[in-house]
TrEMBL record:
Residues 240-348 form the Formyl transferase C-terminal domain. Residues 27-196 form the Formyl transferase N-terminal domain. The keyword rRNA-binding does not apply. SUPFAM superfamilies: FMT C-terminal domain-like, Formyltransferase. Keywords: Protein biosynthesis, Transferase. This is Methionyl-tRNA formyltransferase, mitochondrial. It comes from Rhynchospora pubera.
Length: 363
């Protein structure tokens, strides 16, 4: 269950986006790439088409087309580019530079006369030459309560740490990483079952609401006066996830492993090595599995073998450090689809499971 708390650094009342018939609409450029960015762009386009809107979408900037699906040879546009095309946005105003400092790109950006640039999971570093172009600045939707979790993976690292509160911030972009003054933020209390993709989507959805509400203050310049500087002494970092981190080590306690599974859902996922009894050799075969869904077991479990993996209800029960147990409810075998733990257990036909020793893993 998520609880919401909204804070805006502007002291005025509720904002409304209004424009007089003679007023000139401000030019806004949006930068983003993945699906969560596309959801922000969708709301921005909708707001720009409103009769009382004070801005128009002048350009969209996103990552270049890439091969996204295994087995495909054709290049695919980013989700942001695809949404812009689907909404009828002019293709010549969708820019896809490899780097935001390219001379041709900066020239094209200046050509659309942006008053404001908005970023949401764009994926490229913005040089000072870029930041100097829009007179109203560049603002970013960042899915954390800044200055906490600055960096590429704020949602994943927060879940990995097992936080009970996180949020989304709307902040000005400066050259230092996610260190600009904060315009507004929302707080959340998060339960221990939500996974990274779901939380990421929710936070960007709420961040887009913050953006739309604060746009009048950003475009008239008053947000710069009201925005609060971050306390760098409280800053924490959220580095990008790596595939090498995906292995689960059961010499850690179950809550730590459960938080990692939630955090790493999607990419890179979490993997583990277990052993399956082989009746032909009277030994055990090593098996790599991808752990999809877990929970922490809160009831006492008795086992004669400290390395034996048990099954109860709908879950594999794996012994962990500190006499804790991790319950795995969904998993995936190499080359197979995701399956329920019950189906996997039934397929074993009585074969025992256990955790391998470090020597057995290295053998």
């Amino acid at each position: 269950m998520l609880r919401r708390f909204l804070c805006t650094c502007n002291s005025g009342g509720a904002s409304t986006v209004t424009v007089t018939a003679s007023a000139k609409k401000k030019n806004v450029v949006f930068l983003g790439s993945p699906q969560v960015s596309a959801s922000v762009l969708d709301k921005l386009i909708l707001a720009s088409h409103a009769s009382h809107s004070i801005f128009k979408l002048a350009a969209v900037v996103t990552q270049p087309p890439s091969v996204r699906d295994r087995g495909r040879k054709n290049l695919m546009p980013s989700p942001v580019a695809q949404l812009a095309l689907d909404k009828g946005f002019p293709q010549q105003l969708i820019f896809t530079p490899h780097r935001a400092g390219e001379e041709n790109f900066l020239s094209n950006l200046k050509g659309v006369n942006p008053d404001l640039c908005i970023t949401a999971a764009y994926g490229n570093i913005l040089p000072q030459r870029f930041l100097d172009i829009p007179p109203c600045g560049t603002v970013n939707i960042h899915p954390s309560l800044l200055p906490l979790y600055r960096g590429a993976a704020p949602v994943q690292r927060a879940l990995q740490d097992g936080v009970t509160e996180t949020g989304v911030s709307l902040a000005y972009t400066i050259r230092a990483l996610d260190a600009g003054p904060v315009i507004a933020y929302e707080k959340f209390q998060v339960d221990d079952s939500i996974k990274a993709p779901e939380l990421l989507s929710i936070l960007f959805d709420l961040g887009s609401g913050l953006l739309i509400r604060e746009l009048p203050f950003i475009l008239d310049g008053s947000a710069k006066v009201k925005a609060l500087p971050q306390d760098d002494s409280n800053a924490t970092l959220a580095p990008k996830l790596t595939s090498e981190e995906s292995w689960l080590s059961f010499d850690q306690e179950a809550p730590v492993l459960h938080n990692k599974v939630r955090a790493f859902t999607g990419w890179p996922g979490t993997r583990a090595k277990i052993q399956v009894a082989n009746s032909k050799t009277n030994g055990f075969d090593l098996l790599d599995i991808k752990v999809i869904s877990t929970r922490v077991c809160h009831k006492g479990i008795q086992s004669r073998d400290k390395n034996e993996i048990l099954f109860s209800g709908d879950a594999l029960q794996i012994p962990c450090a500190g006499e804790s147990w991790l319950e795995v409810t969904e998993l995936q075998l190499p080359g197979k689809k995701v399956m329920r733990a019950r189906d996997f257990w039934n397929g074993l036909r009585g074969q025992k499971l256990k955790l391998p020793s470090q020597l057995e893993i290295l053998a």
